[in-house]
Amino acid sequence: METIGIAGSGFAGAVLARELAESKKYKVIIFEQRDHIAGNCHTERDAKTGVMIHKYGPHIFNTSREDVWNYVNRYGTFMPFMNRVKAVTAKGMFSLPINLMTINQFFGKAMNPEEAKGFIAQIGDSSITTPDSFEDQALKFLGKDLYQNFFYGYTRKQWGVEPRELPASILQRLPIRFNYDDNYFTSTFQGIPRDGYTAIVEKILDHPAISVQLGEPFVPEYKKEFKHVFYSGPMDAYFQYRLGRMNYRSLVFERFDGKGDMQGNAVINYCDQEVPYTRISEHKHFAPWETHEESVSFREYSKLAEEGDTPYYPMRMDKDKALLSQYMELANKEDNLSFIGRLGTYRYLDMHVVIGESLDLAKACLSEDHMSWPKFSGKPM
Ligand code: UDP
Prior knowledge:
Elements: E1 2-7, H1 11-22, E2 26-32, E3 43-45, E4 52-54, E5 61-63, H2 66-74, E6 78-79, E7 85-89, E8 92-96, H3 100-107, H4 113-123, H5 134-159, H6 168-171, E9 189-193, H7 197-205, E10 210-214, E11 228-231, H8 235-238, E12 248-259, E13 267-270, E14 279-282, E15 294-304, E16 313-314, H9 318-333, E17 337-339, H10 341-344, H11 351-367
Parallel strand pairs: 1-2, 1-11, 2-10, 7-13, 11-17
Antiparallel strand pairs: 3-4, 5-9, 6-9, 7-8, 12-15, 12-16, 13-14, 14-15
Helix pairs in contact: 1-11, 4-5
Uridine-5'-diphosphate binds next to helix 5 and helix 6.
C-alpha cells in the first residue's frame, strides 16, 4: 500500500485523508503543527464555564451541496442554528444582512418588497456600470447611506485598506433581501455540530489507515517519503517565502466573561470605524440547546498577519495576486505535490467549499493516473 502525506488536519486535509483511506489503496500520514486537530474550526469546551468555544472565531456550517451536508452529518449530529446577526451603526442597532426590516427601520419607512426594491434602485449609484471594487458594488446596489453606516467602517477595520481597493466578491458574500428573512446565510442546509467541530474531524480521522502526528510541522524534505503530498498550509510558507509574503489578515480575540446573557445574541457587529473591534461573539449562543449560567464573549480585532501570526483571510490585493502567480509557477514545477484548502490555494473559502473541494479532489485522484492529479484543490487565480 502506498503512503500519502498530508500537511494540516483542518477540513481540507481530514476529508481528503478519509476519502483516500476509504479506497483501501492508500495509507495516510497527517502532519499537524498545532497540538490539536481541526485547523481554524477547532472547538473546545471551556474549563471554567463549560461553554463550547470556537477557538478561532465563530463557525456556522452552511451549504447548498447536499452531498457535503450528508457527508458531515455522517460524522456528527448537527443541531439547527440560524445566524441572525445584529449590527451597531452610528444610527443605531439593526438587523444584518440588510433586509426589509433593516431598510424600513434605517430610513424610517414602512415599504413593501416592491416599494423597497424601487427605493433602493433609486438611491443606488446607477452611473457605476461594472462594479469591480467592494466600494463600487456597495454604492451601486445599496447607495451611500447604507454603505457608509454598515460597510465602510467595518471593512476598513477588517481589511485595513480602503474598500475601493478590495474586490467586489467580498461584499457579494452578503445578500441584500427585500423580505424579512434575517438569516445571515442563503444556503439550503445550516447548523452547528452538537459536540463541536473538533469531534467531527476526530471521527473523520478515525480510520485504521490514517495516522496523525500532532505538534509536527511538515517540512519539504519529508516529501520524498511519500507517493504524493497534499499541503494545506500557506503556499508561500511551503516555499519558505522565498519570493516574499502574500498578505493575510489575522485576528486577535479578547475574552471577557459574564453571567447570564451578556449580549442577547451570538454575533453583534460593530460597524463604526471608531470602535476598534469588528464584532463580539457570545459563544454559548452558538449552542442554544445547552444551558449555562456563566458566559464567555470575545471581542474580535483584525490585523495584518505578520511573522508568527495565524493567517485567516487572504487579502488578494493586486500585489498579492502577482506573487501568487509566481508561487503557482513554482508549485507547478514540483512533482508529487498539491496545494489544498483556504491557505494552500490562497482563497477566501468557507468550510463547506473546502469539504466539497476535498471530496471532488479525492474522486479525481482515485480515478486518474497519478501523473495527472490536480496541483490545486481549486483554481487559485
Ligand atoms: N461586512 C461589513 N459589515 C458587516 C459585516 C460584513 O462591512 O457588518 C463586510 C466586510 O468587508 C466583511 C465582508 O462583508 O469582510 C464579508 O463578511 P462575512 O460576514 O462574510 O465575513 P466573515 O464572517 O467570513 O468574517
